[in-house]
Amino acid sequence: MSCAIDRKKLSRSGGDFIDEAHLHELLRRQTDPGEVRDVIAKSLAKRPLQPEEAAVLLATEAPDLIEQIFDAARQLKRDVYGNRIVLFAPLYIGNECTNDCQYCAFRRSNREQIRRTLSPEELRRQVVALEDRGHKRLIVVFGEHPRYDAAFMAECVRQIYSIKSGHGVIRRVNVNAAPLDHEGYKILKAVGIGTYQIFQETYHHETYAKVHPKGTLKSDYLWRLDGLARAMEGGCDDVGLGVLFGLYDWRFEVLGLVTHALHLQEHYHCGPHTISFPRLRPAQGVQLDESHLVGDHEFKRLVAILRLSVPYTGLILTAREPPEVRREVMEFGVSQIDAGSRIELGGYTEAGDAQSMEREQFQLGDIRPLDDVVRELMIDGFIPSFCTACYRLGRTGEHFMEFAIPGFIQNFCTPNALTTLMEYLVDYASPETRTAGEAAIRREVEKLTDGDRKQQLLDRLHRIAESNERDLYY
Ligand code: SAM
Ligand code: SF4
Fold first, then answer.
1. Taking the mean position of all CA atoms in its chain, how far away is CA 470?
2. What is the whole-number distance in angstroms between the Cα of residue 96 and the centre of ligand 2?
3. In this predicted model, what pLDDT tens digit does every residue of 286-310 receive, in sequence order?
4. Is 92 helix (H, G, I), strand (E, B) or coil?
5. Above 60 in pLDDT, residue 155?
6. Are 413 and 84 in contact (CB under 8 A)?
7. Which of 122, 125, 126, 46 is nearest to 78 (CA)?
8. What CA–CA distances, in Å, run from 43 to 79, 174, 335, 402?
9. Of the spans 189-198, 399-408, 410-419, which averages the highest pLDDT?
10. What pLDDT band is residue 141 in, cutting at 50, 70 and 90?
11. CA of 467: how far to CAs of 166, 188, 421, 462, 470, in Å?
12. Which residues have C-beta within 8 Å of that of residue 173, sequence separation ≥ 6?
């Protein structure tokens, strides 16, 4: 049964805080090298940037200054996140949709798309397949449809947490779906979701109206803009922002994201947990104005500038990007990627090697198996992590920021990354990946200072390798 959403009730901070004229004015300002260096210094001191400051970085065109921005982003990523990359997989549960977003194959006017909602048994099969590959973190994705109300989504999440296969279990389920009302978020919080993600798609009002036709639910810009503030008030304090890059000027969109992050920080004492920056991909029957497509160099710049603007917000790079782009962009501050992803409905058990456009939202750029991605990350010097400890120990929202801001995160994250990687190596990895992984773990452990903590970690790693003990987290 679906319950009606009360679309009149905005959050207590509700209102349109995107002042377009001001953001455009900031983008017209000239900047000088001294100013750019001052802004970089502020970022490196791990202080979030104001839109005025982010605009200084966005206006920079001199190649040597852009290199300085890249260097600073690399350094900040190392300082705040170390060399960990958290891995997750998307799980599409239903592609029915009443909206008509011009960029998406799920739009209602696309009659060629095969519509499907996974039954509980089909969902179980997908989750078992994901667990058997080693995944511990999922993001579930839904179209916007009366069938997919908060109660339905909550039931899917509850079912996912209950499914176990061998040592496999999903420990964190994030959600990407339409904006809800306060009641809806409470229902999802009660089943223990991780992050609730809503991408604004574009902060530019005119473009927003153009790609989200009038009369559809998604055409309501303000309801969507306010969606994550309501989530916070409903108890979902880990929220994820995003823009679909390619719809409008990327510089304007970065200022939109920074403004949105500051709005949440100001009103809820906690910025967004993550920011996603998907670039527009080919999708069934989609033909869009290509004047705002973002090239690879600009893409690197926007990721680096986001890293510098929001030092404590996780940055998510998705498998929309091809492996070579992911490899390059990762070092500028990405903290999470999806891997081994399939986005066809039922794709983890039913899809072959090729993608089928009539069964998915858009085309992915990277469909390498999880094991290949894990191995490659380690070869490139990263530590793949399946850690879910923070949210399970209540280190979310404002509390998470308390841990993150003084830099204590390293004490928890590195050991948890290593123990979850060890679980993966022992339970799921190919022999090649296991060998590479054990060497990577040894290297990381050697870097730690001797003492009780290091000894305890060694003990945990040994217990995972030699017994059935799992889930030993800090
Ligand atoms: N239906 C929900 C909504 O619109 O909020 C869930 C989101 S949708 C299934 C996930 C995201 O995919 C969208 O927010 C959009 O940014 C992105 N997306 C849609 N079409 C895309 C395309 N052609 N290329 C890349 N990303 C796309
Ligand atoms: Fe539906 Fe979301 Fe696709 Fe829009 S982006 S058509 S709301 S699934």
1. 26
2. 9
3. 888 889 999 999 999 999 999 999 9
4. strand
5. yes
6. yes
7. 46
8. 11, 28, 17, 18
9. 189-198
10. very high
11. 14, 35, 15, 8, 8
12. 137, 138, 139, 140, 157, 160, 161, 192, 193, 194
Average pLDDT over residues 82-106: 95
Task: State how far the Cα of 359 lies from the Cα of 338, in Å rounded to an integer.
Answer: 19
Give the integer Cα–Cα distance in Å for 65 and 72.
10
pLDDT for 312 = 86
Compute the average pLDDT of residues 200-229: 97
pLDDT value, residue 407: 47
What is the amino acid identity at position 14?
A: G
pLDDT in tens, 3-21: 577 777 999 999 999 999 9
Query: Which pLDDT tens digit goes with each residue over 44-66?
Result: 998 999 999 999 999 999 999 99
- Ligand 1 atom closest to the Cα of residue 201 is 16
**Which domains does the chain carry?**
20-76 (no CATH), 82-398 (3.20.20.70), 403-466 (no CATH)
C-beta neighbour count of 340 within 10 angstroms: 22
How many angstroms separate the CA atoms of 213 and 219, rounded?
6
CA distances from 341 to 12, 57, 280, 370, 426 (A): 37, 33, 17, 8, 21
Question: Distance (Å, rounded) from C-alpha 15 to C-alpha 139?
Answer: 28
The share of the chain scoring above pLDDT 70, in percent, equals 95
Pocket test for ligand 1, best of 99, 108, 226, 244 (most atoms within 8 A of CB): 244
Dist. CA 265–CA 313, nearest whole Å: 11
Residues in contact with 335: Cβ distance below 8 Å, sequence separation at least 6, in sequence order? 77, 81, 84, 85, 86, 314, 315, 316
The pair of structure tokens assigned to 400 is 């998470």
Sign of CA dihedral 132, 139, 467, 438: positive
What average pLDDT does this structure show over 459-472?
89
Nearest to 174 by CA among 314, 7, 41: 314
**pLDDT given for residue 285 in this prediction:** 86
Q: Residues 281, 365: contact at Cβ < 8 Å?
A: yes
Q: Whose CA is nearest to atom 6 of ligand 2?
A: 107
CB atoms within 10 A of CB 62: 12
Between these two residues, 301 and 77, which has the higher pLDDT value? 301
Report the predicted TM-score, pTM, of the whole model to 2 decimal places: 0.95
Would strands 164-165 and 168-169 be described as parallel, antiparallel, or unpaired? antiparallel
Residue 402 CA to ligand 1 centre (angstroms): 32
User: 234: Cβ–Cβ under 8 A, 6 or more apart, which residues?
Assistant: 180, 182, 183, 184, 185, 186, 188, 189
Q: How many other β-carbons are positioned within 10 Å of the β-carbon of residue 216?
A: 16
Residues with CB under 6 A from ligand 2: 97, 99, 101, 104, 106-107, 143-144, 218
